[in-house]
Write a structure and sequence with these properties.
By secondary structure, the chain is of the alpha+beta class. The chain is built from 27 helices and 23 strands.
């Protein structure tokens, strides 16, 4: 090792010993960043390796099912929302493979306890042979042999010989219990009952085509799974806990969602961490400007100053990041609980824990710290020795022209992108607005010291006339605009991010609710716990007082399109199925072109105006993709309507959509009635149906919007928590740096109360400028998003949430500065003025 390297190492060690206080802020910022990135990394890994353990298929060696996702080039796969069926002849062909002892097909038919209210637990009917998949054995009685016979589980409160009434699609049927079965571990998610195979085929709208196959093998299940995958590329074969991926539809969706959330969240956290660590490190470097000035004056090269700062930061960052790993794993459990509470992922989804997230977090956080060190070292490294000594006494000068130009370019780009919704509507407008917010935040970070200096000069005269404390505050802030900017920017960043995060879902939700409310012209919404069969909907039309009844099916489809580079893009859209012959009375989609009456089978589709623009299609064009169960979708556009947020981006014939759903039933029916609504409601409820006012109809995709809003809220709370820690950290560092200034003020006659009053005035100034900057950053993207979604320039913001973010972040500055000032004033002025910096 060279002498220069050894000398640099000694200087680094000495700096770490003597500047613990200034580097403590950097330590805290990186510690929190390490914990955040580790926790989010656990979520990403869980999306790859975690999942749901099987319940009904625990006895099978392996489980085979159809693929429940659509692959997307260069992107995450899109999960299918409906059950994709296994080919009818797959069971026979798999049974013929070497080593396979038996193959048991399973079909799930949803049933419900009639009575006008949803049961506490889901009742699912399966064919009797499927008892082998869970290990059910007869505890009493025999297996079902007739269509009206049923076997129930131990603890179901029904015994052999009793009658049980269960409804499918709103049609009740009475079964006689002939058997009671028990298993080593009973399923928790549903209450299984078992019928004959013929009865299941009669109830199932698809004739009993297998939903999944349980395979029993003589040998290694993994080898058998590999053989099945090779022989049947369109099927998936899972062993161990991965069997739950075939059993539960929400497993695949949760996997994709966790990967998407974790990846996006990590990127945001690294960006925020880079801003915060860079600002904190700049304060640390500024507090030691005399030291760097002396190094430059005695011959240190710019490369050596860069190396010195980088090694100091990496030494602190390595320790902080390592210590933040363990809290990061704890944070992942907290995030999991938060997502479960919001219905984003299932409560029994298991996280995958390994050292990989910790390793990834170390690389990312240390990389961000190194980048922040390079940014912070630019000014002290590039000054010539004479300029360095001058700056050590007078403080840093204004930001350079290249930085001003860069900031103006980002600001102009952000404002320009905010206007995209003037010509583009729907999801594209939302994406453009989010991008605009990031550009404006970057512009604020780059131009921050200059903007703060302008604001300070603007309010300075008024402060000087206010009081002695105002005079001192104006003088201090005018000289220390960079120090002030280091405190203002994180607060403004938090306010801007917070308003955009809560504003997006609120704008979408408000417009969707308005469209759903305006589009439903029926008086009643009729549903059943497990859906409605076409026969039940037809029977509703015969009820006295019913003018019209239209069944509605809610599903989803994955549609193909092309991006600007000509690459295939696949995205999920809400799909609605309606009866074109009866929809005119109960439903108004506000059709702009064509007619809903032209919908006929699977060859036609109506699209919303937003979807038409996003997909680049018009009347007469073809929509291609897959239905919710993976079946091919190829339909011609015959109508374009406006109320897509309220009723789905795509609308097709009810029978066609219903054929591609898991249950094969209508989701609900919209009913128009005569003036005597009460009598009609009583007649419908007497049939065991659930009747509610149609005005309370939820918008299509409302659950997805709610989940997205919850994800944004969790992300916002975590990021704001990080920013709050960084703000306190920054203000404590900046205030501690001024200890000699406070001592000098007291020695020349100022009282502690006057010093506190001065700092209180500065705190108010910091809070006010931060709130103004944060709101200004958020206004253009939110206005653009609102116009793109609702056509209105004024966004529908949650008032209390917005005030809480703005007021909370502003109050943080007041509290942090008060505490930091009190701590700094504890030392006697005569001792502090004689201390070394």
């Amino acid at each position: 090792m060279s002498a220069a390297a050894l000398e640099l190492g000694r200087i680094v060690r000495a700096d770490l010993r003597h500047h613990r206080r200034s580097l403590a802020g950097v330590f805290v910022a990186i510690f929190v960043a390490g914990a955040l990135v580790t926790g989010l990394g656990v979520l990403v890994e869980s999306g790859i390796r975690g999942g749901l353990a099987p319940e009904r298929y625990t006895a099978a060696d392996l489980v085979v099912g159809a693929a429940q996702q659509v692959d997307v080039p260069e992107d995450l796969p899109v999960p299918l929302r409906e059950r994709a069926l296994v080919p009818a002849d797959a069971a026979r062909e798999i049974a013929a493979l070497p080593g396979v002892e038996a193959v048991v097909a399973d079909v799930t038919v949803p049933l419900a306890v009639p009575g006008g209210a949803a049961p506490d637990a889901v009742v699912e009917a399966h064919p009797w042979p499927a008892t082998a998949l869970t290990g059910f054995t007869l505890a009493e009685g025999r297996e079902p042999a007739a269509a009206d016979e049923i076997a129930v589980t131990v603890g179901s409160a029904h015994g052999v010989g009793e009658a049980v009434t269960l409804a499918h699609g709103g049609s009740p049927a009475t079964y006689r219990v002939v058997g009671v079965v028990a298993a080593p571990v009973a399923p928790d998610r549903s209450i299984p009952v078992f019928l004959t195979e013929d009865r299941i085929a009669d109830l199932d709208p698809r004739g009993g085509i297998p939903h999944a196959l349980g395979v029993f093998v003589d040998g290694d299940p993994e080898q058998a799974a590999t053989a099945i995958r090779e022989s049947f590329p369109a099927l998936v074969a899972r062993t161990g806990d991965a069997r739950g991926d075939v059993e539960f539809l929400d497993s695949g969706a949760a996997r994709t969602l966790l990967i998407a959330i974790g990846s996006a969240f990590v990127g945001t956290c690294i960006l925020v961490a880079l801003f915060i660590v860079s600002g904190t490190l700049s304060l640390s470097v500024q507090s030691r400007r005399r030291e760097y000035a002396l190094l430059r004056a005695v011959g240190a090269t710019p490369q050596q100053v860069h190396a010195l700062i980088a090694r100091e930061v990496l030494a602190v960052a390595a320790l902080a990041a390592i210590l933040g790993l363990a809290p990061g794993y704890l944070l992942s459990s907290v995030l999991q609980s938060a997502f479960v509470a919001g219905g984003v992922i299932p409560g029994d989804f298991a996280l995958a824990v390994s050292p990989l997230p910790a390793a990834g977090a170390l690389l990312l956080v240390l990389g961000a710290a190194w980048g922040a060190a390079r940014i912070a070292a630019r000014r002290p490294a590039r000054l010539d020795p004479i300029e360095a000594l001058r700056e050590s006494s007078t403080g840093p000068g204004p930001i350079g022209l290249p930085r001003v130009i860069t900031g103006i370019v980002f600001a102009a780009a952000g404002l320009s992108v905010s206007t995209v919704p003037l010509v583009v509507r729907g999801d594209a407008a939302v994406g453009a607005s989010a991008g605009a917010a990031l550009m404006l935040i970057v512009a604020l970070a780059v131009l921050g010291p200059w903007l703060v200096s302008l604001c300070v000069r603007a309010v300075g005269p008024a402060l000087r006339r206010l009081s002695a404390a105002g005079f001192l505050a104006a003088a201090n802030t005018a000289v220390g605009s960079r120090r002030l900017a280091a405190a203002i920017l994180p607060i403004a960043l938090g306010i801007g991010l917070g308003l955009v995060q809560i504003g997006g879902p609120a704008i979408v939700s408000a417009e969707a609710a308005d469209q759903a409310r305006a589009g439903v012209t029926a008086q009643l919404r009729v549903s059943g716990p497990s859906g409605l069969s076409p026969e039940v909907v037809e029977g509703i039309r015969d009820v006295s007082g019913v003018d019209a009844a239209s069944g509605v099916v809610v599903s989803a489809a994955v549609v193909d399109s092309r991006d600007i580079e000509g690459k295939t893009v696949r995205a999920e859209y809400a799909l609605q199925g309606i009866d074109p012959g009866t929809v005119d009375g109960p439903l108004d989609l506000k059709v702009r072109e064509g007619a809903l009456g032209a919908l006929d089978g699977d060859a036609t589709v109506a699209v919303s105006t937003d979807a038409a623009q996003s997909l680049g299609i018009r009347m007469g064009d073809t929509v291609t993709g897959v239905f919710g169960d993976g079946a091919a979708l190829d339909a011609t556009v015959v109508a374009v309507y406006e109320r897509g947020l309220g009723f789905g981006a795509l609308t097709m014939d009810e029978a066609q959509v219903r054929a591609h759903t898991t249950s094969g039933l209508d989701s609900f029916a919209l009913v128009s009635t005569e003036p005597d609504v009460a009598a009609t409601v009583a007649a419908l409820e007497a049939q065991g149906l659930v009747v509610t006012p149609a005005s309370g109809q939820k918008a299509a995709g409302a659950d997805a919007v709610s989940q997205q809003g919850w994800v944004n809220l969790v992300a916002l709370l975590v990021i704001l928590g990080y920013i709050a820690i960084a703000v306190v950290n920054t203000l404590v560092m900046a205030t501690g740096e001024r200890s000699r200034e406070f001592a000098l003020l007291q020695l020349i006659g100022a009282s502690r109360g006057q010093v506190r009053a001065t700092m209180r005035t500065e705190a108010i100034l910091i809070a006010a400028i931060s709130m103004v900057f944060g709101v200004l950053v958020a206004i253009p993207p939110l206005m653009g998003m609102s116009y793109g979604i609702s056509g209105q320039p004024i966004p529908a913001m949650p008032v209390l949430g917005s005030l809480a973010i703005i007021g909370g972040m502003g109050a943080l500055a007041l509290i942090a500065l008060r505490l930091a000032t009190g701590a700094t004033l504890r030392r006697r002025p005569i001792e502090e003025i004689g201390s070394r910096e």
